[in-house]
């Protein structure tokens, strides 16, 4: 850049992009100047800039701007009325003389054209050919002669004459209707030369007044140019930021457009806008008004939103007014804007004078959605979180931990069944090249999934791996990441999925089915096959040519594969796919035993590729503690932005949960003490009842003993013992047992229970 620039508000989005373009040049000393939105005396000028001017020193700023700058760039999006009055007063001053060429550039917006209707193509009068005029005259003369002859031959009453007149009038009307052709209204884009006709709506009238104020400056050696930019996108997004955020998160799943979406919205990438400003300042055009818009073929709002949805989101759009709840009125006006304008010839050129302008995004948002997405993710620090989680024992707690990680990082949980459900989901645009093979081999693939055993690579498994690769390459997985639940199961699957393996997964070409020829087609004469020169070829020669072409295609593919293999060997081996995982988590089962069968081959496969498995035992931890441990492991290389919860919020949440845990422990302690007291009281009452019962029984026994002691012992024996003993002896004498003593003892023992009753 040979010019010295003054940038108003260098800290604005346009100023920052301008700065990134200016610092690409290797300049030892600063040559440019600028201002900041808020004056800061302690701020040093950045690289490439000589001085940061202060608004509270207007005389010094005026002098420096005139003496040491060639181009003055003001942006209406960040400038104020004071800024524009200041620069206009500098050049209006009669004392100011410009010895060198100066350029004042006002970067405006297409919103100054917001009240403009479509431009109607001017009418071109078409001259009637002389031959057609002659024929019409001859027809008219013939009609007149016929009418005169009929009038002479047939002299009828007045009523007949009136009828003839009516018929003639009807014929003339019919001829006029035939000759009249309905006018077709054609619309053409607005051009830069039409800027004096522009009209802005009420809320953007001030922008138009600023344009008129700057365009009204007339001074020798001063060139004033208004660069009317389209809606700006790119480098993190300004206006389209909410659209890209919703598409990246897929919340909601479908993006929305306003009304019918057929309004034409001019757009421009912010990098292209800066390049256009530099181009205008370096090679000054004759026109004072320049359209700075990209060369998009389809400018409709619907096409732009569809491009964002396809390149970033789910690929689906709809018309839904609830989508725009968080949009400001200014943003709504921008998307409702309808302006069909032509890109300046200065940037696209024509056949006679081609342009040397280097575009960054010439064909707009829809065509460059992936490039814009890369800028968006790098500026907002977004990156995918790709995880494999494995657990031999699937239960509710494992599922809870899985859902906590999925909800926190906003990433989908995917397993084998889910992948093939998505493959059959009409919401996903399934690749046409494998659609037919997938429908054919799906039953065999389903058997392989159900067997859960490794198998050799076959045509069916090639489709199986291609479908999995397709699902992991969708926008939600590429942008935000995924959690593969208990998948892959074998190291062979991991190798085929996470590495290209184009040669191994190449499908065998099926023989082309010969078309069924009916008898009617056989009877019809067949057109001869013709070569490049137009000479007829026999059918056998045509088949040989097809075979040769197929062989040539196969040879070219083999050569490409060999070249790719050589490149991989030179680079140190094959590179993994973009969706190669960055975290491998193995959760131990929740049973009592510590021993379980690890998938050692799969662990070694990832370990050899610098991805060590992380083993965690959640048995002695709460779900939240387990989640925190896993979060720390997942974020070991840095925490992405990804519109996640702030770390301060997570700390507050952790302390709140800890407080709740402490309170619950405290409450449970109090509750346990209370329960222990109640239990001890019940036990004490039971013991007291037993004591009273035993005490009463002892007292009764003691009373009986006292009563017994009151009788004389001889009388007691005579009354109670001797009669029973006599009866026992009588029984012994009567029965004559083998052991009389034992028999007598048992007899007395049995009678002792009836003593009280007797």
Automatic annotation (TrEMBL):
InterPro entries: DD_AK7, Dpy-30_motif. Residues 121-175, 509-580 are annotated as: Disordered. Residues 529-571 have a biased composition (Acidic residues). It holds the Pfam family Dpy-30. Residues 516-525 have a biased composition (Basic and acidic residues). Coiled coil: none annotated. It comes from the Eukaryota. This is Dpy-30 motif protein. The lineage of its organism: Eukaryota, Sar, Alveolata, Ciliophora, Intramacronucleata.
């Amino acid at each position: 850049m040979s010019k010295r620039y003054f940038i108003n508000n260098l800290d604005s989005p346009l100023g920052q992009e301008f700065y990134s373009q200016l610092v690409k040049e290797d300049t030892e000393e600063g040559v440019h100047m600028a201002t900041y939105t808020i004056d800061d005396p302690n701020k040093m000028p950045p690289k490439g800039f000589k001085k940061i001017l202060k608004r509270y020193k207007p005389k010094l700023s005026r002098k420096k701007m005139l003496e040491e700058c060639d181009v003055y760039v003001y942006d209406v999006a960040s400038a104020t009325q004071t800024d524009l009055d200041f620069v206009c007063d500098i050049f209006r001053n009669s004392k100011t003389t410009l010895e060198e060429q100066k350029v004042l550039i006002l970067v405006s917006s297409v919103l100054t054209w917001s009240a403009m209707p479509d431009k109607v193509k001017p009418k071109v009068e078409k001259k009637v050919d002389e031959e057609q005029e002659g024929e019409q005259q001859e027809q008219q003369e013939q009609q007149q002669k016929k009418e005169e002859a009929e009038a002479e031959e047939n002299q009828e009453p007045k009523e007949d004459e009136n009828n003839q007149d009516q018929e003639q009038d009807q014929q003339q009307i019919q001829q006029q209707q035939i000759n009249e052709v309905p006018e077709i209204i054609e619309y053409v884009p607005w051009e830069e030369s039409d800027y004096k006709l522009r009209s802005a709506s009420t809320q953007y009238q001030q922008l138009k007044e600023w344009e008129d104020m700057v365009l009204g400056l007339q001074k020798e050696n001063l060139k004033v140019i208004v660069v009317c930019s389209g809606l700006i996108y790119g480098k993190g997004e300004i206006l389209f930021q909410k659209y890209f955020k919703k598409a990246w998160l897929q919340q909601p799943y479908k993006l929305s457009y306003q009304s019918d979406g057929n309004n034409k919205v001019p757009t421009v990438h912010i990098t292209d806008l800066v390049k256009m400003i530099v181009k205008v300042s370096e090679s000054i055009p004759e026109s004072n008004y320049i359209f700075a818009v990209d060369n998009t073929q389809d400018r409709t709002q619907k096409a732009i939103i569809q491009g964002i949805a396809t390149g970033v989101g789910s690929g689906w759009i709809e018309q839904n007014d609830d989508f725009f709840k968080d949009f400001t009125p200014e943003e709504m006006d921008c998307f409702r804007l309808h302006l069909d304008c032509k890109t300046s010839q200065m940037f696209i050129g024509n056949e006679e004078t081609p342009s040397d302008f280097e575009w960054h995004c010439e064909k707009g948002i829809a065509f460059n959605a992936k490039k814009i997405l890369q800028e968006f993710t790098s500026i907002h620090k977004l990156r995918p979180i790709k995880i494999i989680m494995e657990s031999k024992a699937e239960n509710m707690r494992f599922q809870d931990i899985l859902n906590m990680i999925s909800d926190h990082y906003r990433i989908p949980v995917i397993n084998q069944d889910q992948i093939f459900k998505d493959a059959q989901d009409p919401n996903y645009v399934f690749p046409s090249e494998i659609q037919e093979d997938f429908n054919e081999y799906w039953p065999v693939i389903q058997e392989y999934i159900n067997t859960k055993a490794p198998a050799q690579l076959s045509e069916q498994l090639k489709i199986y791996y291609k479908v999995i690769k397709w699902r992991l390459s969708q926008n939600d997985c590429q942008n935000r990441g995924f959690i593969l639940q208990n998948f892959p199961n074998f190291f062979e699957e991991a190798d085929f999925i996470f590495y290209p393996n184009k040669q191994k997964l190449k499908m065998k070409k099926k023989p082309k089915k010969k078309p069924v020829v009916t008898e009617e087609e056989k009877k019809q004469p067949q057109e001869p096959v013709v070569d490049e020169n137009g000479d007829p070829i026999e059918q056998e020669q045509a088949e040989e040519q097809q075979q040769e072409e197929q062989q040539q295609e196969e040879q070219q593919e083999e050569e490409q594969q060999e070249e790719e293999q050589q490149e991989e060997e030179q680079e140190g081996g094959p590179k993994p796919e973009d969706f190669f995982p960055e975290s491998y988590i193995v959760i131990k089962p929740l049973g009592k035993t510590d021993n379980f069968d690890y998938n050692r081959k799969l662990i070694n496969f990832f370990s050899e590729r610098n991805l060590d498995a992380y083993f965690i035992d959640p048995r002695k931890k709460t779900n939240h503690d387990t989640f925190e441990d896993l979060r720390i492991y997942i974020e070991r290389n840095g925490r992405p932005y990804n519109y996640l919860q702030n770390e301060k919020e997570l700390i507050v949440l952790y302390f709140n949960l800890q407080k709740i845990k402490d309170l619950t422990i405290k409450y449970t302690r109090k509750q346990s003490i209370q329960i222990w007291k109640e239990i001890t009281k019940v036990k004490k009452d039971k013991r007291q009842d037993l004591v009273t019962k035993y005490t009463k029984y002892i007292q009764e026994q003691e009373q009986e003993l006292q009563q017994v002691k009151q009788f004389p012992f001889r009388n007691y024996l005579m009354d109670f013992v001797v009669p029973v003993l006599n009866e026992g002896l009588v029984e012994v004498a009567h029965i004559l047992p083998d052991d009389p003593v034992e028999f007598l003892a048992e007899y007395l023992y049995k009678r002792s229970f009836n003593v009280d009753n007797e």
